[in-house]
């Protein structure tokens, strides 16, 4: 090949390199960031097959911050926000930014401030259309143990207090069996307004209301969070997996330990599951240093 043809060929290859369209045998790690004629750029001969340049290892990919849940094995994202405590990693169920990453802690936050921010006449989601009362939460503002349900039912909507119906009475019995009283713990829900016909909260409703739940948990600063049922567990752990996959296991979550168990309403329909829930509550008691109530 004469010098003229060779020069044209090299010019064409350089142009293709600049567009990122060079032949597959080129060292892209070098040619993408160095112009062909710049110092340190490989020559045409150096880039031929058979004389590949030395390729350095790519830089490590930074890991996402872990708020020891999320949500945070699952097939999606709990959490940069959540991590299983143990040998297996907890991988959240969605790839979008998790609830933990998107919600920063509010400095000097308090339950009173959060209640004020929500307001007495919240219309942020469609649940407001049929509600009677906003059900904010109740209990010790500095509780070591917080129970999180899914949403208010009819009795809760009427009274403005969470877990006061049949399921609530069973929850009270569970709390007392642990050697505590309702006023010793804090009880709240993922959403603050009753879903129609007691259906599960929908994704948009959860997305609107759950940041207030996170603020509540941050303001209280509990040692243990106990999710009651799949909805609250899936929300905080950022997964769509059924609760049976992780019930009774510990997760780190925003400075607290999180455990999920069955909802009291489920126990009313399936009394045989009470023994499983008691085992989960005994794990909570061990962490909190509690002794069961003597009969």
Q: Which key phrases capture this entry?
A:
295 residues; alpha/beta; Uracil-DNA Glycosylase, subunit E; 2 domains; seven-stranded mixed β-sheet; 10 helices; 33% helix; elongated
Characterization of the model:
The chain is elongated and about 100 Å long. It has a seven-stranded mixed β-sheet with strand order 1-6-7-5-3-4-2. It folds into two domains: 1-62, no CATH class; 83-288, Uracil-DNA Glycosylase, subunit E. It contains ten helices and seven strands. 33% of the residues lie in helices and 9% in strands. It has 295 residues and is α/β, with parallel strands linked by helices. The protein has helices at residues 3-18, 28-31, 99-102, 111-118, 154-159, 166-177, 203-220, 230-237, 264-269, 274-288; strands at 83-84, 138-139, 145-149, 186-189, 224-228, 250-253, 256-261. A hairpin with a 2-residue loop joins strand 6 (250-253) and strand 7. Residues 22-81 and 86-102 have low confidence and may be disordered.
Uncertain residue segments: 22-81, 86-102
Our Rg estimate from Cα atoms comes to 28 Å
Q: What is the typical, i.e. mean, pLDDT?
A: 78
CATH topology of the largest domain: Uracil-DNA Glycosylase, subunit E
The main β sheet shows up as: 7 strands, mixed
Classify the secondary structure makeup into a structural class: alpha/beta
For the biggest β-sheet, the strand order reads 1-6-7-5-3-4-2
User: What is the helical fraction, as a range of percent?
Assistant: 25-40%
Sheet-strand content, in percent, reads 5-15%
Shape: elongated
Number of helical stretches of at least 4 residues: 10
Number of domains: 2
By CATH's scheme, which homologous superfamily of the largest domain applies? Uracil-DNA glycosylase-like domain
First-last Cα distance: 99 Å
In terms of quaternary structure, the protein is single chain
CATH class of the largest domain: Alpha Beta
Query: Total strand count, please?
Result: 7
- The secondary-structure element order is HHEHHEEHHEHEHEEHH
User: From the coordinates shown, what is the CATH architecture of the largest domain?
Assistant: 3-Layer(aba) Sandwich
């Amino acid at each position: 090949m004469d010098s003229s043809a060779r020069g044209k060929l090299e010019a064409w290859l350089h142009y293709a390199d600049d567009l990122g369209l060079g032949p597959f045998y080129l060292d892209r790690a070098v040619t993408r960031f160095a112009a062909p004629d710049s110092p340190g750029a490989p020559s045409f001969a150096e880039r031929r097959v058979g004389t590949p340049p030395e390729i350095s290892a790519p830089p490590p990919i930074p890991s996402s911050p872990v708020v020891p849940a999320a949500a945070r094995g699952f097939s999606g994202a709990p959490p940069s926000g959540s991590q299983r405590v143990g040998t297996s990693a907890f991988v959240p169920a969605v790839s979008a930014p998790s609830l933990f990453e998107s919600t920063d802690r509010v400095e000097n936050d308090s339950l009173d401030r959060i209640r004020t921010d929500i307001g007495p006449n919240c219309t942020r989601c469609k649940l407001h259309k049929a509600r009677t009362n906003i059900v904010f939460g109740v209990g010790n503002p500095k509780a070591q143990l917080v129970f999180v349900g899914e949403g208010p039912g009819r009795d809760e909507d009427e009274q403005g207090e969470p877990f006061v119906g049949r399921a609530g009475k069973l929850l009270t019995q569970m709390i007392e069996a642990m050697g505590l009283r309702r006023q010793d713990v804090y009880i709240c829900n993922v959403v603050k307004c009753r879903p129609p016909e007691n259906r599960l909260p929908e994704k948009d409703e959860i997305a609107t209301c759950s940041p207030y739940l996170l603020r509540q948990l941050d303001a209280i600063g509990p040692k243990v969070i106990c999710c009651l049922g799949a909805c609250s567990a899936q929300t905080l752990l950022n997964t769509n997996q059924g609760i049976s996959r992780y019930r009774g296991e510990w997760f780190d979550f925003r400075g607290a330990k999180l455990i999920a168990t069955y909802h009291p309403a489920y126990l009313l329909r399936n009394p045989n599951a009470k023994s499983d829930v008691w085992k989960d509550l005994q794990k909570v008691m061990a962490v909190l240093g509690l002794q069961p109530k003597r009969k």
